[in-house]
Design brief:
single chain, alpha+beta, two-stranded parallel sheet, two-stranded antiparallel sheet, 27% helix
Length: 158
C-alpha cells in the first residue's frame, strides 16, 4: 500500500476501508494495480458504527438504519434474489451476506489527538464522488445499467 504521506494534500487524505481481511485486500490491490491507502476493518465494528453494514439479525428483522433513516431491508427468499445474487457470487459471497454491506463515506478530522466524525454520505449521496455517473446521468440512455455491467480491468473481453 502506498505511503500515506504521499496522499496527504491540503490536510486531506483518502483512505478506503473494507471488511475483508488485510491479506485479501492486499492481494486484490496488487491485482488491480492500486496504490491508495486501504485499511481492513475485519473483526471490528467500524462499518456498523458508521452505518455501512448491518448484522444478520437486523437484516432478518427487516428494518435497518441506513442513510440516516430506518430502511425496510428484508432478505428475499432463496431463489428470488435477482441480479444481486450473480454479483454476490462474482465477488465470492452469497446474496444475503452481500446485501448486508452498503456504500458509505465518512470524513474525520483530527485535532489535539482527538478524532472527530465530521460528515457521512450514503446511497445516491455518493454519486457525486463517482465522476462517470455525472456524465452518464446526462446521456440519452442514462446509466443504461442492464445485467452485469461492472467488470474489472482484467475481466474485459470475458
Amino acid at each position: 500500500m502506498g505511503s500515506p504521506s504521499i496522499w496527504a494534500n491540503h490536510d486531506v487524505m483518502l483512505w478506503a476501508v473494507s471488511r475483508a481481511p488485510l491479506a485479501k485486500l492486499q492481494a486484490y490491490e496488487q491485482r488491480m494495480g492500486w496504490s491508495f491507502p486501504w485499511a481492513s476493518s475485519f473483526g471490528s465494528d467500524f462499518n456498523y458504527d458508521f452505518g455501512a453494514a448491518c448484522t444478520e439479525d437486523e437484516q432478518r428483522a427487516g428494518s435497518v438504519e441506513y442513510n440516516f433513516r430506518s430502511t425496510n431491508w428484508p432478505p428475499r427468499p432463496v431463489g428470488e434474489e435477482g441480479p444481486l445474487a450473480e454479483i454476490a457470487a462474482r465477488v465470492g459471497t452469497d446474496w444475503a451476506t452481500y446485501t448486508r454491506e452498503a456504500p458509505g463515506m465518512s470524513a474525520f478530522a483530527i485535532e489535539d489527538d482527538v478524532v472527530y466524525h465530521t460528515y457521512s454520505a450514503y446511497s445516491r449521496g455518493l454519486d457525486g464522488l463517482w465522476g462517470m455517473y455525472q456524465w452518464l446521468d446526462r446521456a440519452p440512455l442514462g446509466r443504461n445499467e442492464r445485467g452485469l455491467w461492472i467488470r474489472r480491468h482484467d475481466e474485459y473481453g470475458a
